[in-house]
Each structure stands twice: as structure tokens, then as C-alpha cells.
Amino acid sequence: MSVPFPVSFEGGRTAAAVPVDQRSDLSAALAALGLDAPRLVVVLVGGAGRMTARDLDRLRPLFEQGLVPVAERLGGGVIDGGTDAGVMQLIGRARTRAEATFPLVGVPAVGTVRFPGKRSGVRRRWPLDAHHTHFVLVPGASWGDEAPWIARVGTELAGGSPSVTVLVNGGRVSYKDVACSLHVTRPVVTVAGSGRTAD
Questions:
Q1: What is the pLDDT of residues 4-36, one digit of tens each?
Q2: Average pLDDT over the chain, rounded to an integer
Q3: Residue 6 vs residues 49, 172, 182: alpha-carbon distances, Å
Q4: Residues 30, 38: Cα–Cα separation, whole Å
Q5: Quick one: average pLDDT of 155-169?
Q6: Where are the domains of the chain?
Q7: C-beta separation of 128 from 86 below 8 A
Q8: 82 near 109, Cβ under 8 Å?
């Protein structure tokens, strides 16, 4: 298993990251990041780069008044794709504004993201979100490659405790995210009226 390393963002924010190549390494990777199981887990999936500014403004209260306070009160953890877009951006900023302490774990496919301070010749790479606390970097170079890994990290971190997937908005990849959660027998709550796939 790889050793965790720090990811430094502008403004002094840092997150701990670890690359994982095999499912059998997930437990050790989470332990190396200091993430103890079992704990209540929310897996957040949904809209990303194609959410409009209007979508983000309209859905912000859901995160600031709903998801973040609940995760903090229950001492849970939230897992998502970890990029600076859509629902992942909303949960990250809401967590920071609330000065919450729950772990926010991004699980991106390493070939789809851009690290801070690094230039990438690949146009479709998206920056990591600076408001996440941890990243589990998984194999893949296409959007959706991370979907089964997000579901598995959720199961591993829950360790037998209750977990739920929450779908907010979403695009084509969100169908795969939902299927992966259902495959590991995690219930999915869809936020009606949030747009696109969720509707």
C-alpha cells in the first residue's frame, strides 16, 4: 500500500491523500489516513461540472442547513468524488463555513483530476476541492471510473454502521453511482426537485 502524502492548496489548506490500486488495500489506506471505522457514512453523488450557478445557489441551503449539520451532529463521514465542482464544491464550502469537523473524503479517479500547482495538458482534468479533508486516489482516466470505488470506500468506512447514498441533481455518471451503491446494498435517497438525474 502507498504512503499518505499532503496536498497543499492556496490559502494554507491541506488535505491528506493516499493512492490505492486494489480493493484489498482500502482498509489499510483509510487507517493510514487516520479515518477510523465504523462510523455513520453519507455517500454524496450527483451533479458536477454541468451544474449552473443558478443550480448551485438554489441547492446551497440543502447543504448548509441539512447535510452538513446532520453529518456533524452524528459524527459521521461524507464521501464524494472530491473535485471542485457541483455537489462536491457545495458540501466542501458548507463544511468550511460551518467550521464542521467531520471527515470529508474525496475519491477521484487519479487520471481525471488536477493537483494544485500542477499543470496538466489534459483539458478534461478537474481541480481537487480545497475544502476536503482527505483524498483516496483510485485508478482511472475517465469520469465514472471512480464510481465503484466511492461505493466501496463508503462501505469500508461505515464498517457495519448505517450508511446512505444521497443523490442531488446529477448527470450521466450519476446513474452508475446509484447502481454501485445499490450493488453494495446501500439505500439511496434522491433529492426530488434538485434537477436532472435526481428528478
A1: 999 999 989 999 999 999 999 999 999 999 998
A2: 95
A3: 25, 32, 32
A4: 11
A5: 97
A6: 5-198
A7: no
A8: no
Give the 3-state secondary structure of residue 141. Answer: coil
Residues whose CB falls within 8 Å of the CB of residue 108, separated by 6 or more in sequence, listed in order: 81, 82, 83, 128, 135, 137, 138, 146
Angle of CA points 144, 38, 152, to nearest 5°: 20
193: left (phi over 0), alpha (psi -120 to 50) or beta: left
Beta strands in the chain (DSSP E): 5-8, 14-19, 41-46, 77-80, 104-106, 113-114, 126-127, 134-137, 163-168, 188-190
pLDDT of residue 37: 85
Q: Which CATH number fits domain 5-198: 3.40.50.1460, 3.40.50.450, 3.30.460.80, 3.20.20.370?
A: 3.40.50.450
CA dist., res. 26 & res. 9, Å (int): 25
CB atoms within 10 A of CB 50: 14
User: Do 81 and 108 meet the contact criterion of CB atoms below 8 Å apart?
Assistant: yes
Global pTM value: 0.95
74, 86, 123, 147 from 154: Cα distances, Å: 16, 20, 29, 11
